[in-house]
Amino acid sequence: MFIKFKKLQSYLTISLLISILFFSSCNQTSKTTELNLPEGFISTVFVDSIAETVRHMDVKNNGDLYVKFRRQSDDGVLAAIRDINKDGKADSIVKFGKYHIPQRGSYSTSARIYNGYLYYSSQLTIYRVKLDHNHLVPKSSPEIIVIDDHEHGSHEHIGKPLAFDDEGYIYVPFGAPNNACQDPKRTPLAPGRDPCPDLDLHGGIWRFKADKINQTQKDGELFATGLRSIVAMNWNPSDKTLYAVGHGRDDLARLWPNQYSKWESALLPSEEFIKIEKGDNFGWPYCYYDQMQNKKLLNPEYGGDGEIIGRCDQFKDPIIGFPGHWAPNDLVFYNGDAFPERYRNGAFVAFHGSTNRAPYPQSGYFVGFVPFKNGKPSGDYEIFADGFAQVDPIVNVRNAKYRPMGIAFSDDGSMYIADSRKGKIWRIEFQGKRENFGKKQLNRMEKRKQLSHFATPDIENDIIDMDEKKIEVKKYFNPLIVQFNNFSLFHIFYNQYKSKRDE
To answer: What tens digit of pLDDT does each residue of 451-466 get?
Structure first.
């Protein structure tokens, strides 16, 4: 239940005073600029902003950072960044590169270094350019490795992240051109096409030769299918296997209000962390994974009702089911030794953050970590880096100041995290004692799971009422919920909700 504005004034003053006193005593050092990290880790701002903003990035063995722009500009489609004086901040940022065909849109995604080349993608093309040991910006001309030559051009889920194996192959997703294979798409109560014709050329990952130029999709091999949208994908060198974290479908309640509540639609379906082997089928568009029931269920477009399994028992399950709409947008396995031992061989995932959980708070907006042992997850997900949104609850995606997008590691042990809003890049280092790192150092991050952008919302009390004015909580607080008369400070807003999709 929400309390109207006039009744809140006496509570608000007391709540804010107590909160300010408490949180001021919990401030981290000035080095931990804006981000919340496990004890022993510090963050500094490496790049304050890049106008074109950033998607994926990678680090050359000499420490130079290469970042892929979200949008092209007259200055280029990438940036080469160097810390000349080794003070942990970028001194030289040079924009470069272009596409052979100019494009609109903001799904240009990948930048990965492989065998001395920088591979990068627009929405429709995979390029590579030879890196030069003597120059920050490559001097050679780019080559086209793969081009998406479909007649329809751009569509939903067109982004092309890249991964490379140990045998000279590059893996490229061709995302589904719609939500659930409806015709017309995203139409309430419209059934899905069965069989779905989109699976012939979309909704899967294709494998190509990494050093062969001018390939089209027909030159590749379908490696795995039943995948709606993949942005976070990488090769795990420890078990020599491809992994990804997929984007689940949207709009269960909007499209099927007779089958799903808005609460179910906010939490479902899962964002699936998957281990991908040749020939795998993960079930899109027929099925989705329900992380609360721990099973794949039939989509309503194909006769499902939130309980029916049907044909879904024939498709591969994820290794972890994250909550719905967190938007996993990068995946990197850590193989260094600068971080504490518990992080070795584990997976870091950048969760860009939800846009469509209304009438409940938005969720995600953090970098998570999944520990691995013997080639499989050895524990629940952990919050590694948080504080990007700078506000909680997150009423609308526009309220989030930053959205984590790309992850990269350098040979010296530094971690980089990029933001897609302003193009900010943070540098993360561990300065604690590796041998003493354990549950105690993780405790403050575990407490953050109480915040609304992690916690499962209460079906009634966490609804954001759009018809009443609420007090806007602008300051990003640590995970203490100050309560008076069962009233939570985190449920006060002043700004009205406006829905806005954001990739």
So the answer is: 999 999 999 999 986 5
Q: Taking the alpha carbons of 339, 341, 342, 348 in that order, is the dihedral positive or negative?
A: positive
In a domain, 402, yes or no: yes
Residue 408 within any structural domain of the chain: yes
C-alpha distances in angstroms, 264 versus 251, 283, 291, 325, 360?
A: 10, 20, 11, 12, 11
Q: Would you tell me how many other CB atoms lie within 10 Å of the CB of residue 82?
A: 16
129 CB-near residues (< 8 Å, 6+ apart):
97, 117, 118, 120, 138, 140, 141, 142, 143
Give which of 232, 175, 182 is closest to 199, Cα–Cα: 175
- Window from 95-99, 135-139, 485-489 with minimum mean pLDDT: 485-489
For residues 234 and 173, the answer to whether their CB atoms sit within 8 Å is no
> Can you give the pLDDT at residue 205?
98
Query: 269: domain range?
Result: 5-491
Is residue 503 included in any domain, yes or no?
Answer: no
The answer to whether residue 24 sits within a structural domain is yes
For 28, 38, 148, 346, the CA distances from 429, given in Å and listed in that order, are 15, 11, 39, 17
Domain CATH for 119: 2.120.10.30
For the entire predicted model, the pTM comes to 0.87
d(CA 287, CA 309): 8
Q: What's the one-letter identity of residue 454?
A: F
Sheet holding 92-96, edge to edge: 54-59, 65-73, 76-82, 92-96
Count up the domains in the chain and report the number: 1
For 170-217, the pLDDT digits (tens) are 999 999 999 999 999 999 999 999 999 999 999 999 999 999 999 999
- What pLDDT shows up at residue 168? 98
